Amino acid sequence: MTFKTYTVMPISRKVLVRNNLQSTHSLPGTYSLGNESLENIPMGTGKTGANSSGFFVTKKAVRRVLGIDPGLASTGYGIVDFYNNRYRMVSYGVISTESQQPHGERLLQIYSKLIAVIQEFKPTESAMETLYFAKNVSSAMSVAEARGVATLCLAQNCIPLGEYTPNIIKQAVTGTASAGKSTVQEYVRLLLGLEVIPKPDHAADALAAAITHIHSTPLQKKLQKQETLG
Q1: 169-196 pLDDT tens trace
Q2: Are 28 and 92 in contact (CB under 8 A)?
Q3: Is 175 left (phi over 0), alpha (psi -120 to 50) or beta?
Q4: Given 81, 125, 129, 145, which residue is catalytic?
Q5: Of residues 71, 140, 75, the one with CA closest to residue 114
Q6: pLDDT tens, residue by residue, 54-94
Q7: What is the pLDDT of residue 139?
Q8: Helix (H, G, I), strand (E, B) or coil at 164
Q9: 181: nearest Cα among 170, 192, 190, 171
Q10: Consecutive H or E run containing 38
Q11: Which residues of 73-105 are buried (b: 16+ CB within 10 A; e: fewer)?
């Protein structure tokens, strides 16, 4: 059993403008508002104070979203903060199990390690891709089991879960539902201000789910309506 964590913070400030979405990536632990730095803002609360210019500003609550890409062999996770229209990558990684391990033990490892991630980073929201039936039935069943374990972890910790179809995730991250996997991963890198694309793929997919959840509620309703009509 291996439990890999990659905590990679942006080392430069970048701005990405796409479809009227602006993302400014600050240094670790700091959220910027104009020329002011708002540090250590409690999640789930809002505070108001005066900046150095005498103007009152509102410190909005930080949203911390845990994205999960479930799988029996490898479950990816990614944690993203969102404050004042800015993204900040907090951490990402994978929970790996070995094929020779007893089946129940593999599921237990996913459970225990995901609980550890939740307890360490304390996300307030979560996101996963909806389950779809692949041609490989056995593979789909193992994903479903891992997904059930992840859902249980979230429910036990009272973390609301958003579920999104692959097309909704592609649309939310890249602006088009026809984007390929590599394109989605590159946009994840850009949106989070990272120097390289997050690896392994399961971790990048988890980050994409988190990004989707942050700004997809209106988009989700629109695309689901289109899929229904289509």
Answers
A1: 999 999 989 999 999 999 999 999 999 9
A2: no
A3: left
A4: 129
A5: 75
A6: 444 445 688 999 999 999 999 999 999 998 888 999 999 99
A7: 77
A8: strand
A9: 170
A10: strand 36-39
A11: bbbbbbbbbbbbebbbbbbbbbbbbeeeeeeee
Assess whether pLDDT exceeds 50 at residue 97.
yes
pLDDT at 51 over 50: no
Residue of 25, 125, 145, 202 marked active site: 202
Residue 69 falls in the annotated catalytic set = yes
The partner residues of 56 in beta bridges, in order of sequence, read 50
* Residue position matching structure tokens 């695309």: 223
Nearest to 94 by CA among 190, 17, 201, 178: 201
Task: Identify the active-site residue in 69, 81, 145, 205.
Answer: 69
pLDDT of 13 strictly over 80: no
Q: Is 34 left (phi over 0), alpha (psi -120 to 50) or beta?
A: left
Q: Give the separation between CA 126 and CA 59, rounded to whole angstroms.
A: 22
98: DSSP letter: -
Q: Has 205 been annotated as catalytic? A: no
